[in-house]
């Protein structure tokens, strides 16, 4: 899987918790987006050191019809709060730098249905991001933030993120996953600023 010569591949990570009991949780939306990207590219996941599943893919199409950049799609299979170890391991094995690392994760402070993109910044209490920052030694990696909204009333945010999407949200979820996958693809093909212009515009999502 190493890349002798040439540029290191992009590493696109989807955060979540392992096991079927967590599969539909809001906290696992990163896994769901990675599944969508694997489906688009026809890539298959395989185990990586017992803590992640990795799929090797080409994402998108370059002008002229050539296949897009090589990406490693990484679904963490460790618990959220220890995501950093396997992510750092994949990145180091590829000789990649954090500026080619894209992390897809749930975001309480963004309304459901919206996708927001940034590089660096704080973790906002997100244990998966905190673990990755600690393991890779920097906050300067790219984030695709998938809005899941704040919990209603006085519900504990920890309980909320570990709950499944509501019935109404599940109807809209395929569209949201598709939008987040589009955002990853645009970052890789056109860069963060172009993707931000697209996904942060008033017409992008609501």
Keywords:
hydrolase; seven-stranded mixed β-sheet; Peptidyl-tRNA hydrolase; Pept_tRNA_hydro_sf; 206 residues; tRNA-binding
Tell me the span between the first and last alpha carbons: 39 Å
Q: What order do the strands of the largest sheet run in, or round the barrel if closed?
A: 2-3-4-1-5-7-6
Estimated radius of gyration: 16 Å
State the CATH architecture: 3-Layer(aba) Sandwich
| Main sheet summary | 7 strands, mixed
Number of domains: 1
What proportion of the residues is helical, as a percent range? 25-40%
CATH topology: Rossmann fold
CATH top level class name = Alpha Beta
Binding site for tRNA: 22, 79, 81, 127
Pfam family, one: Pept_tRNA_hydro
Catalytic activity: an N-acyl-L-alpha-aminoacyl-tRNA + H2O = an N-acyl-L-amino acid + a tRNA + H(+)
Keywords: Cytoplasm, Hydrolase, RNA-binding, tRNA-binding
């Amino acid at each position: 899987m190493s890349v002798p010569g040439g540029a290191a591949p992009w590493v696109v990570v989807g955060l979540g918790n392992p096991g079927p009991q967590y599969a539909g949780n809001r906290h696992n939306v990163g896994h769901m987006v990675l599944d969508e990207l694997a489906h688009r590219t026809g890539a298959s996941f395989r185990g990586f050191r017992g803590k992640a599943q990795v799929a090797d893919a080409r994402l998108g199409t370059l002008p002229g019809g050539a296949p897009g950049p090589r990406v490693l799609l990484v679904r963490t299979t460790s618990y959220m709060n220890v995501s950093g170890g396997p992510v750092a391991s994949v990145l180091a094995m590829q000789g990649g730098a954090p500026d080619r690392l894209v992390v897809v994760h749930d975001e309480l402070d963004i309304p459901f249905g919206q996708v927001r993109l940034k590089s660096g910044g704080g973790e906002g209490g997100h244990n998966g991001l905190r673990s990755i920052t600690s393991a890779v030694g920097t906050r300067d990696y790219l984030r695709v933030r998938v809005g899941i909204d704040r919990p209603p009333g006085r519900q504990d945010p920890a309980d909320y993120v570990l709950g499944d999407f509501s019935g109404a949200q599940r109807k809209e979820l395929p569209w949201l996953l598709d939008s987040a996958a589009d955002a990853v693809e645009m970052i890789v093909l056109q860069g963060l600023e172009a993707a931000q212009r697209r996904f942060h515009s008033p017409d992008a999502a609501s």
